[in-house]
Amino acid sequence: METNHFLALFPDHFTAHEILDVGARWQKANRMRGWLRPESHLHVTLHGLGDLPDIPECREAVSAACREVTEWLPFFEVQMNRVLSFKNRAENLPFVLSCGMGENPMLMELHHLLGESMREKGLPTSDLSFRPHVTMLYGPRFVEEELVEPIHWKANAIVLVRSYVGQTRYRQLASWPLSE
Question: What element of type H or E holds 111?
Fold first, then answer.
């Protein structure tokens, strides 16, 4: 069974419903095929880790990197105010809720600092072109970027997730709360 791991921020339950409402409205208005993601899958990926070996040394390195950042980084607000499709897949385009560059400086700082800490510990990190987004659905229709009513939530923890590839199944393995 193929798995991937990633570090992410998850919106609260209320905000996840708001995100799904936006996705459903746009899906209907644009006659987009595809299924909305389950509420439990709505997240902002901070860094992908690939198929992380399930050994104590790897888990401890991830934990140390997350603790190093969360010990001093406070809760902060995430704001998403745009919808668009990404063109990174041939037929199954991600339709996402996102933000403009520079609109979430604390989120960008978290991504940067976490990446630095992970590299210092020998862990893989995502590339440097980070555009924060929440994938709402996958489908064949491309949608140009458009502004929407902003959706806000408080980022309060980094979560380590194991994704079971092709199964639409996640397992949250650990979390590290941001400082209050």
Answer: helix 105-120
SS3 state at 93: strand
pTM for this predicted structure:
0.93
Q: What are the tens digits of pLDDT across the range 61-74?
A: 999 999 999 998 99
What are the DSSP E strand ranges found in the chain? 3-9, 44-50, 76-85, 93-98, 133-139, 146-155, 157-164, 169-177
Q: Regarding beta strands 146-155 and 76-85, do their DSSP bridges make them parallel or antiparallel, or are they unpaired?
A: antiparallel
In the chain the domains, ranked by start, together with CATH numbers, are: 3-177 (3.90.1140.10)
Contacts of 152 (CB under 8 A, 6+ apart): 15, 77, 78, 79
Distance of CA 130 to the CA centre of its chain: 10
Q: What is the DSSP string of 63-79?
A: HHHHHHHHTTPBPEEEE
